[in-house]
Amino acid sequence: MTQSLTQSCEFLWYIPNDVRPGHRGDSVTAGHNSLDSLTSHALALERFGWKGALIGTGWGRPDTFTVAASLAARTTTFEPLIAIRPGYWRPANLASAAATLDHLSGGRVRINIVSGQDDLAAYGDAEGDQAQRYARTREFMQLVRKLWTGEAVNYRGQYFSVSNATVEPRLQPRPGRLHPQLYFGGASAAAERVAATEADVQLFWGEPLGEIAERIERLKSLGDRLGRALRPLEFGLRITTLVRDTTEQAWADAEAKVAAMAKNNGAGWHDHQNFVAVGQRRLLDLAERGEVLDDNLYTAPGKVGGGGAGTTWLVGSAAEVATSLKKYRDLGITRFILSDTPYLAEIERQGRQLLPLLREERPASQAAPAPL
After folding, report:
1. Within 10 A of 319 (CB to CB), how many other CB atoms are there?
2. Each residue of 168-197: b (16+ CB within 10 Å) or e?
3. Among 215, 285, 268, 204, which residue's Cα sits nearest to residue 239?
4. What is the pLDDT of residue 266?
5. Residue 301 pLDDT more than 70?
């Protein structure tokens, strides 16, 4: 029996948090990254039924935690998914900051641990090879969780140590969670070992259904083999959703966007062009299998400079995109992070047209047909 989407799934948006205007085709406006502008996005997310938003991170962007705290102070239900990097943060500092904001916001904090490469030297960090990078991430996540759930914590690892550490204010258990959930991404073998044992939510980018199904089963099996001691791992999807009133309009707009991207080599669409991680390479390789995979997974953006969640798009009417997202839900995805540009206008469009369809209880196989 299909469980109600309202009960089991959550729908978040994306706030790029970039000093440069025009991120992934966004409108270029004065003060686009001012507190008033960012607050208008957060308030729109509340108004149109979204749970919250992932806030982007990376050296050269405004500090993500500061932005999240500012938006939490100006909203009442908006939940920031705060992207942070081990190395930029020490575990005890992050645990304390998150506990404080969680207390002040009434339990609205989520953390996304990002282990992809960055301009580390710019903020005084250094990493070795991939194995070392993810070993450090594992310790980081373990220690943050210990600091949130224990008192007088003593921990001595290869990368981090604390003595007699107690985070104040103490985190209050909330319905469905003992502490802010730790989201995590990564497709390499080293990343999957960390996700299988330490993450609360594993995030995927927009791969075809078959690949997502294989990865979910592999992570579940890996968690069993490695002795996962936490609650069962949950799964999330971070993807661009291009929704229009009709199928024809959606594809016309998608193709026009790709044509515009091609003219300037995807400038503004790929946040980390210098670092092609395993997960990013998987997305880029999809274009070799076809321009459209499954029903409406558009791979062409990756060929002209699209990166990350902008590499593949779900394209179509609201009914068609909802049907595709429900198919991911049926595989076990419960956390959806969607977006399209212009961000503010699409918060409303997709909030009005897409979210109501996603909250219907019908499984994907019984979804209403797209309008002709």
Report:
1. 18
2. eeebeeeeeeebbbbbbbbbbebbbbbbbb
3. 204
4. 67
5. yes
If one counts every other C-beta atom within 10 angstroms of the C-beta of residue 353, the result is 17
CA 68 and chain centroid, separation: 15
Q: 139-170: per-residue pLDDT in tens?
A: 999 999 999 999 999 999 999 999 999 999 99
* Residues 294 and 326: beta-carbon distance below 8 Å: no
User: Looking at the DSSP assignment, which residues form a beta bridge with residue 345?
Assistant: none
Q: Measured between alpha carbons, how far is residue 333 from residues 98, 213, 313, 318 in Å?
A: 25, 10, 17, 19
Answer whether 328's CB lies under 8 Å from 212's CB. yes
Amino acid at 287: A
pLDDT tens-digit series, residues 233-279: 999 999 999 999 999 999 999 999 999 988 887 666 665 455 557 77
Separation CA 197–CA 103 (nearest Å): 27
Q: Burial-class residue 65 by CB neighbours within 10 Å (0-12, 13-18, 19+).
A: buried
Q: Is the pTM of this model over 0.90?
A: yes
Backbone φ and ψ of 328, nearest 5°: -65, -40
